[in-house]
Amino acid sequence: MTRTLTAFFDSHGDAMRAVERLAEAGIPRDSVRVLPDTEVSSASSGTSTSSYDVEQDEKGFWQSLADFFFPEEDRYSYTEAMSRGSVMVSATVDDSIANQAEDILEETGTVNISEREEAWRSEGWRGWPGSSTSNGTQSSASATRLSGNEEGTIPVAEEELRIGKREVDKGRVRVRSYVVETPVSEDVRLRDESVRVERRPIDEAIASKDADELFRERTIEVEERGEEAVVSKTARVREEVAIGKDVEERTETISDKVRHTEVKVEDDRSGESRDTPRRRSSR
Q1: How many beta carbons lie within 10 A of that of residue 118, not counting itself?
Q2: Domains observed in the chain
């Protein structure tokens, strides 16, 4: 499974540093796209009071995002960001390193588009116009084109539904271990020795033959010994915490409406009216 990550940077240099960091993390260079490819010169970096003209699309920002399957509103905001000098980095990465890639993009200075949108709106930016014109009225799709013997034409239009996928952040789970010191105490019995010297009075006559034995030098040495506590610690693993991800695929039914125009012909000559069925294009 792969994920597509999208981030914006204030300069082309910041964006390229992020690309280099992604490459060092093992993400192939051909899996990373940078738009626009070169520095963008914006006459008013962040102070424009009108929306980027996607109809004109002078620099091709709107068209360059056509194959990303972004929602129209996101695509419009991203186009506005690039028109103001920001650079988009889009990386398709494996799920196993997606979090690492997100951290790299954050560490290298990615900007918060939502916060930028709020700032643009406070300066007069109107945001995604949808299908309305600049004065808030619904634009008309009808047009009259005259050529040859034709009196006029009415275009028959049809909408197509395109469904893509994009990655969304649903939050993170972070498991962190830390050290807690807990005081413990335990009693231990220790043995101490002490030497005792006593002088005891004795009045006893000694025979002459034993007197010489009494009058000689003698030394008695007694060593005192004792016990002291010795502390040692043994580390044991009592439990482990494992973190992983379960990936499930689901099928979601997208319901929407697409529009098309039908043509009704009213013929006053015969008093008939009929509907002209639309032709479906083969795809």
Answers
A1: 11
A2: 1-129 (3.30.70)
